[in-house]
Amino acid sequence: MASASLQFFAFILALFGVFGDITATLLPNWKVNADVGSNIITAITQMQGLWMDCTWYSTGMFSCTLKYSVLSLPIYIQAARTTMVLSCILSAFGICITIVGMKCTKLGGDTDSKSHACFAGGVCFILAGIFALVPTSWYTREIISSFLDQNIPESSKHEPGGAVYTGFISAGFLLVAGVIFCTSCFKRQQGAWIYPPKQHQFPSTEQESNEGYNLKDYV
């Protein structure tokens, strides 16, 4: 019962991780530059994401421009696009597989099949967490390095946006959920190896007939 509750808790974490992963991939605020200028009325906020660049004006206007050209993008943005999409796909596969392998569901067949499905789902979550953690870390490193560069003007410097923090948190949720699923299945399999089921040996009918025959000889 405790293992089933732990798997359900890990499944909830994985759901939050999947939603956060998809949200971080689509959000345009991976890095933000707030330029107030000389007047608060002309203040603008520039945001750059993986798929589009957006500008928000203090007057309430909001405009976005899609990044159509892939080859013109920096290598870390191209890598972030690929790994974040892979993370979303793997985490979605993990959700489908762990639904079959969880103890609280009636899918997946016998205990061994559910255990294997649960372990496979945990591996998907761990890989999805790694694929989400790598681009967010690389993207944050590029932002910090350009921010500390003295040759770059202040107006061109950016800070990490909300999408980066969402990606970090989602990666943590996915990693924790994957570890919980894998360890719960491993413990169950290890217990089966250490304490194998006892096989009851019943005397054969041939031995019973022989014993009856020997007793008759002594009468």
Automatic annotation (TrEMBL):
GO terms for molecular function: structural molecule activity. InterPro entries: Claudin, Claudin_CS, PMP22/EMP/MP20/Claudin. Residues 1-20 form the signal peptide. It holds the Pfam family PMP22_Claudin. Its main location: other. GO terms for cellular component: bicellular tight junction; plasma membrane. Residues 200-219 are annotated as: Disordered. The chain crosses the membrane at residues 84-105, 117-139, 163-186. The keyword Oxidoreductase does not apply. It is a multi-pass membrane protein. Residues 201-212 have a biased composition (Polar residues). It is found in: Cell junction, Tight junction; Cell membrane. Keywords: Cell junction, Cell membrane, Membrane, Signal, Tight junction, Transmembrane, Transmembrane helix. The keyword Cytoplasm does not apply. It comes from the Eukaryota. Belongs to the claudin family. Claudins function as major constituents of the tight junction complexes that regulate the permeability of epithelia. This is Claudin.
